[in-house]
Amino acid sequence: MFDECCLSINAENKLQQEDKYWRYISLVKAALAGNWEIAERFLDQNKTALRVPITKSLETALHIAVGTGKARNGKAQNFVKKLVESMPLEALELCDDKGYTALHTAAWVGNTAAAMVLVQTHPALLHIRANYNRLPIHVAAMYGRKDSKDTLSYLLRVTKDDPPKNDPQVSKRYPAYKNQSGIWLLTYIITSEFFDVALDLIHRYPKLATTRIQLKKPADTKVRAGPTSALANLAMKVSAFPSGSRLNFWQWIIYSCIPVKVESCSKYHSRGDIEDPMNTSQILTNQKYNWARVLWANFCFFAHKVNQKLHFIHWKVFEFAGVSVKVESCSKDQSRGDIEDQISCSKSHSRGDIEDQMNTSPKLINEKYNWVRFLWANFCISAHKARQKLPFILRKVFEFAVPRMIKRIPEEKQKHYQALQLAKCLCKEIQSLNNSNYYESLAKGPLFTAAKLGVHEVVEEIVDSFPSLVWARDSDNYSIFHHAIVLRHENVFNLLYQMSEHKRVITVSIDKSNNTTLHWAGRLAPRNKLNLVPGAALQMQRELQWFEEVKKFVIPYYMHWQNNDEKTAEMVFTDAHKALVVEGEKWMKDTATSCTIAAALIATIAFAAAISVPGGNDDANGLPILSNETVFFVFAISNAFSLFTSTTSLVMFLSILTSTYAEKDFLFALPKRLIIGLVTLFFSITAMMIAFGSIVYLLFGYNKRWVLIPTVVFAGIPIISFVCLEFPLLLNLITSYGGGIFGKKSNRLFY
Q1: Are 480 and 448 spatial neighbours (Cβ–Cβ below 8 Å)?
Q2: What pLDDT digit, counting tens, does each position of 449-481 carry?
Q3: Which of 288, 376, 523, 719 could pair covalently with 321 via S-S, beta carbons 3.0-4.6 A apart?
Q4: In this predicted structure, what is the pLDDT of residue 165?
Q5: What is the largest CA-CA distance in the chain?
């Protein structure tokens, strides 16, 4: 009975609580819509509504109005302004169930206009803590997006180091940039990838670069897992560096041609203009595409020269049209001769305005051919206007036609540059401590984090600043290169090629299970790394490449070393890759079977076309009737070439089907045959289309040259389709063949 009474009382209290919030439903709707008239009428009848929560989340009307986000018009902004003017200062400090004030909410949603109104009315809001000691500036950094960066920048500008001294509640306020508050702020900014803001913050407060994060905070009951410093946090941002970009061949070419805009207030990062494309940082540009940068720079130079010539030609045309007027320098308020009432002369004019010159006195224009010159001048003026609008038109066409990913490439390269500068800045600040113990505690963890994630740029910067860390080992006695081998990060492993002969020593290591470096290379790669390579056969090839490459750095003494399971490295490799060999064999056979059918069909068509030549044969001598035509010669050559290449392709694919599929075959033999087969198949398709087009033109194009246009267009469809569908596979085969992904990628000395 007592339990039933308690339940009844609780239910009644709950209904009363819900009824309490339902009273404010009209105010909630008005706040969401930004309708101040309805809200004002409601507030006139309910004076206390400004000082109490009106939702279950303990939000006030100000929280809701601010949380609507950026105002698309002045309606919502005006609502917030009117509401703030009607509220007492202590009501602005009311918090919701997360401990957020209205300024926290504005920082969360990126409502800069509302944040400005709140800060101007009550600056102490900047130093009020929410849950986990978060200030509004922390919230803006933590939930930062690209479109809310303005809010973060504004809060950084107005938030002072310490709370206002004239604030009566100053003892309850919280500093923004000191100790743990500052390092958490920097961590949030780096997490949101606002690297330029992080650079500026470190410039203002250098100690943040060497401050460690306290993972166990007073308000927490458990230890929070995560980075321990700003450098550790940056090392986890794989996508912030070029090594983490997943750009294809064409995107890398565009990436290598784009100049970097240098903007920062950091003392390690000087402010400047846009650099010349030829001087783009080497670390940002893949060495493979240097030729693209050269072509781009020459194209820009040529375009500049053409633009200068066009400008000169325009003025020559105007002079011929009789509309050029010699304009002398004049002051801002002066007028000249007969044409002052027609042409206004500014301080910087050198030739005058072209349109106004059409209104000049007729005595300035040659009487002869007056009407011709008049029409020509109007045409020139229209052309000049079109030329002025051309950049705008081209930009619109570019925005419409170019894929969104290509548009993001300049932003991505800018982000990479800023992240690299931030890594340099953090390392230099740690280096300035001149204490090896700090090097170990602040740089060793980020070094191994970067090595495990494959961020070779951070690894290079840390080792360049603290060379002794190249010999560092973790608790499992692994070095950074052992992690690179196990996790298959070729970018980190390739740093060995930038080392001196110390690389022979650093790769010698035995773990607790008596495994050598070669044993680790014999293990199967993580699935996420295998999936980056298309097809099980190419995945097997990549695994063999890793094994053979690591073998080059292993001394002969350890080549046949047995681990605790009495297995050599080759035995470990065979056991780990049994399933992958079976999958690779199936993938190869399926691919070869499909291509064999296509090659056989093309060979059949080419052979049949060679026997039954178009136009027939001459009964007298047996020669083709159309043999004297040039187009017939094109048909004969292309048809023969199609037959030879399709036959070669057929042989290559048959050799793949009859292969023994041993492990070593996946390294060179099978990929080489597949490359030859695909290339010759492409050439046979192209030659067959040329032969077919020649026949069509030969039979139907006599005195009808327009037939050639649709023939070329339609013949190009299968060729383009083959390139689009099979070129990525062929490109992967070619780039991974031989040494593939390994080798020296930079001239920068690693150690």
Answers
A1: yes
A2: 999 999 999 999 999 999 989 988 888 888 899
A3: 376
A4: 60
A5: 121
